[in-house]
Design a protein that fits this description.
The structure holds 3 protein chains of 3 kinds. By secondary structure, chain A is an all-alpha fold. Chain A has helices at residues 5-21, 24-45, 49-72, 74-81, 84-90, 95-124, 132-157, 163-191, 196-225. Chain C has a domain at 20-55. The chains are: A mainly alpha, B mainly alpha, C mainly alpha.
Amino acid sequence: MTVGAWEAFWLIVHREMRLSFRRPEQLLQPLVFFLIVTTLFPLGLSLQLSLLRDIAPGVLWVAALLSSLLSLDSLFKSDADDGTLEQLALSGHGLTVIVAAKTLAHWLLTGLALVLVSPIVGTALGIPTEAFATMLLSLAMGTLTLSWLGAIGAGLTIGLRRGNVLLSLIVLPLATPLLIFGAAATERAISGASVVGALYFLAALCVFTCTLAPFAAAAALRITLE
Amino acid sequence: MWTWFYKLASPPYVFGAAAALAPWLFGAAALAIAYGLIAGLGIAPPDYQQGEAFRMIYVHVPSAILSVTVYTVMAVASAVALIWRIKVGHAVAAASAPIGASFTLMTLVTGSLWGRPMWGTYWAWDPRLTSELILLFLYVGVMSLRSAFEDPARGDRAAALLAVVGVVNVPIVHFSVVWWNSLHQGATIVTLEGPKMPGSMLWPLLSMWLGFMLFYGAVLCIRVQGEVLNRERQSAWVREAIKS
Amino acid sequence: MSDFWSMGGYARYVWPCFGFAGIVLLWNIWSARRHLDAAKIRAARALAMAASEAP
């Protein structure tokens, strides 16, 4: 029974989600990390909520970035370790489809989870609820873009010693425009200024990355696997 | 006409051409930089606002332009190597990376020293300086990735892909001066109304720019010889080539 | 002439600035030469090993 590209895509997404839900503790790790990191800032700075608000967008975004990075290492690793990745590559569906499916699953499990938890974190950092819509939207687009950038980095660093560190070293500089626009959007929402410009730039980055990154990530896998 | 292009893909040809070109490029670079320094330090009048401190522009701006240009050359060479499987492209990319990183460091340090008297601070997180710092991280990433692989050919290809992906950051650096308000001077050299600097200040700057470009070419010639040798160690032509 | 060296009072920024630029340029030349010499030595060694292994 041959399977079309769309079917293969959703099959892989489904597989990733089911495999991950067998170990729910693994799913919680990035979320807990997110909460811990954001807690560190008020503890380290011992600020009142009103002063914390000034640094809140940046803290939120840096924490989200780092939490996403944590889980990127496992994007291809377990499949590469037991040979499943090569089987998928040989399956004839094209690495691009496979990579796209795995990355979407990763975002649903990590990035989207971070977005859903962010109102709690935002409140803890003093972000007013009027800014939540912008915060959620910017984080959603940002984490999706980051999942894609991370897929490229993960593809390049599978199986390398200290691959984790190298992955962060590669992905973080590429993610800085995301951070700039995302934090700026949230900050403008807090101060009441227009968020439209920043959000448009963020959306542009997101669309650009989602369009081109699958091919780059597939190319990265091809380099690593051959 | 295309035979010239095909020759560039041949490692022994590139090795020989680089060896022959290097002294000329060094000589031309020395002349351009000498004129730039003499005219820039001695002849150009002090700036109305910044006084003598503006002279730091004569190393800061050329190194900034070079840091971005070299990355672009590295990315183009990487793309050529990946698409047409021309190994010389990897040699050029690998040779360019440390040179570009050193120019990026030069930009950051000279910019910091220039910033202190002008803006009162050794460092400001303005978009231009920050982008230059990110560019340094990108260079380090490419160099680290290349050296992390046990198989040098695979390392070359991985680093090449990363260079091509990273080059998207290069236009963001260029346009960040336009996109945001910042402490940095606006684009002084090329604007729609023509350069804002008077000629006596501009010519030494252009000469330093040219000199740095020629210098990059010269150093590239030396480094690319080594990179080609490292990738072609077993080939027959190497025996003759290293006798020099 | 002392006006030139003092650079309008900014000497302690201007001269280290040019000095660092000069150091970077010199480092580039030195490092490239060292890289090429090492590559030639490694190539010679590889050729010698291949020659000694040949039947």
